[in-house]
Specification:
Elements lengths: L2 H10 L9 E2 L17 H7 L12 H13 L15 E6 L1 H12 L6 H9 L3 H9 L2 E3 L5 H5 L5 E8 L2 E10 L4 E5 L10 E6 L5 E6 L9
Parallel strand pairs: 2-8
Antiparallel strand pairs: 1-4, 2-3, 4-5, 5-6, 7-8
Helix pairs in contact: 1-6, 3-5, 3-6, 4-5
Length: 218
């Protein structure tokens, strides 16, 4: 089965997980002061502008992907990112991360962000939706301190396949506590968190990552 068909197969079974949690996280990871802000992550992404540019380290492509899904499917679970009073944590692939994904899928080394987005959109809206859901942890506000104290924890994402919630594993390495996320593709390099606590102080928080999380073995 081709990598595209594997992603499409995952998309066919995608659904929102009603609950969330950090399986295996230590009790010490709990927030000392719970965030109370209600600014949604979608507002933060749009505040930086939603135009493609030449900065590979911002989030234009993931922003456009969210907008495309919500335009095509207004009731998509991805809409949680517009609901600032609903706790959620998102791992946001930067634009370079999507370029690397497209190169792996198509063997084309595209550099223009519009072309990269077009290649991603070409996977189909259901596939894009499923990939986005795999980057969202619903019901939990996981800040950098919580994440660094959660080595080995499994995070339940907003994506389910055949009724089973898909997870990613937190892997904290070294004295500097670099955080990698272990996805469902054992052969590819794992994403690393490169920007922490986007939208800090709010119940929706995000962290930037340098590769796209893969819900299937590609």
């Amino acid at each position: 089965m081709s990598v595209i068909r594997r992603l499409v197969a995952v998309a066919a079974g995608a659904a929102l997980v009603s609950g969330a949690g950090i399986a295996g996280a230590p009790a010490a990871a709990a927030h000392e002061h719970e965030p109370t802000g209600t600014t949604p992550l979608a507002e933060v992404l749009l505040a930086d502008g939603d135009e493609f540019d030449r900065n590979p380290f911002d989030y234009d492509i993931v922003t456009q992907a969210v907008l495309a899904v919500l335009e095509a499917k207004p009731d998509s679970p991805v809409g949680v990112l517009t609901q600032g009073d609903v706790a959620a944590t998102a791992f946001l692939p930067n634009d370079r991360a999507f370029r690397l994904l497209v190169r792996d899928l198509t063997h084309e080394n595209l550099r223009d962000e519009a072309d990269v987005f077009a290649a991603v959109a070409g996977l189909g809206i259901d596939t894009v939706e499923a990939v986005l859901l795999y980057h969202v942890i619903p019901g939990a506000t996981i800040d950098s301190g919580t994440a660094r104290a959660a080595d080995g924890a499994h995070l339940t994402t907003a994506l389910t396949v055949d009724g089973a919630g898909q997870t990613i594993e937190v892997d904290v390495r070294g004295r500097s506590h670099v955080i990698f996320l272990i996805d469902n593709d054992p052969d590819a390099r794992n994403p690393r968190i490169v920007q922490f606590d986007i939208n800090e102080g709010n119940v929706q928080i995000a962290h930037g990552i340098d590769r796209v999380l893969r819900p299937v073995d590609l």
